[in-house]
Amino acid sequence: MSSRGAAVVTGASGGIGLEIARVLAREGYDVALVARNSARLEAIAAELEAEYKIRAVPIALDLATDEAPKALIDVLAARDVSDIAVLVNNAGFATYGKFAETSLKEEVEEIHLNVLTLTVLTKLMLPAMLARGRGEILNVASVAAFAPGPLMAVYYATKHFVLAFSESIADELRGTGVSVTVLCPGATETGFTDRANMQESKLFAGHKLPDARAVAEFGVAAMHAKKTVVIHGAANKALPWAARLLPRGMVTAIVRRVQAPRGH
């Protein structure tokens, strides 16, 4: 076991989650990598162990189910992943389109993964952190947390939850040695766009996006600094300010125009 303890990272098979796992491994944490793709996780674990001389444990699990959080805790115990110093709740996805036309099944899974799994995992891992008097939790939200989101109504709503939940428990945990940070990136170069079928959205199409490694480095540094809410990228900080200063209907209309497909 690393002297720094272990870090559990959900959604670790790609994008921001993978890059956060790489940053933490470089810092000397053992890492438990959680996602659905077993072969991908095993390859990543081998890469991290070889490069950083830490222990990397791949855990293939569909987190969008009722049983998943408790199953993850059981697997961690069975694989002797103890002294968990860091929990990164990164797993999540988005659906895109008019709410009346999108898939109910996918949106239920989206709410489950983005909200319920994050909440339950935090609940289950907090007691041990509090007992040790140390621990860091990094919840990955989005700048979407600060505004209504036409064409991504459910996704924006889930990120509202992550932001408010993280801020609330961060306050409750002051003085305990356990901190909560919520990372709010904007559009980032990951597999997110393809998963949400947003390739033609004006938010992504034709733009050079920040890479996931830059977002990960920023988020981990903010977590270690015990910051509560952090927004990656200077331009992304405009949305929270606009949401505070402009009429709500105007903010909603702006988001709708930005997210609409090109040509609309």
Overall spatial form: globular
Number of strands: 7
Structural class: alpha/beta
* Individual helix count: 9
End-to-end gap: 54 Å
The description of the largest β-sheet is: 7 strands, parallel
Tell me, rounded to a whole number, the average pLDDT: 90
Helix content: 40-55%
Widest beta sheet: strand line-up: 3-2-1-4-5-6-7
CATH architect. name: 3-Layer(aba) Sandwich
Radius of gyration: 18 Å
CATH topology: Rossmann fold
SSE order and pairing:
Elements lengths: L5 E5 L4 H12 L3 E6 L2 H15 L3 E5 L7 H11 L5 E6 L14 H29 L2 E6 L12 H20 L5 E7 L7 H4 L16 H13 L4 E3 L6 H8 L2 H12 L5
Parallel strand pairs: 1-2, 1-4, 2-3, 4-5, 5-6, 6-7
Task: Walk me through this protein's architecture.
- The chain has one domain: NAD(P)-binding Rossmann-like Domain (Rossmann fold).
- Helix 2 links the parallel strand 2 and strand 3.
- It is α/β, with parallel strands linked by helices and 264 residues long.
- The chain is built from nine helices and seven strands, in the order βαβαβαβαβαβααβαα.
- The longest helix is centred in the middle third of the chain and has 29 residues, at 104-132.
- Helices cover 47% and strands 14% of the residues.
- A seven-stranded parallel beta sheet has the order 3-2-1-4-5-6-7, sandwiched between helices.
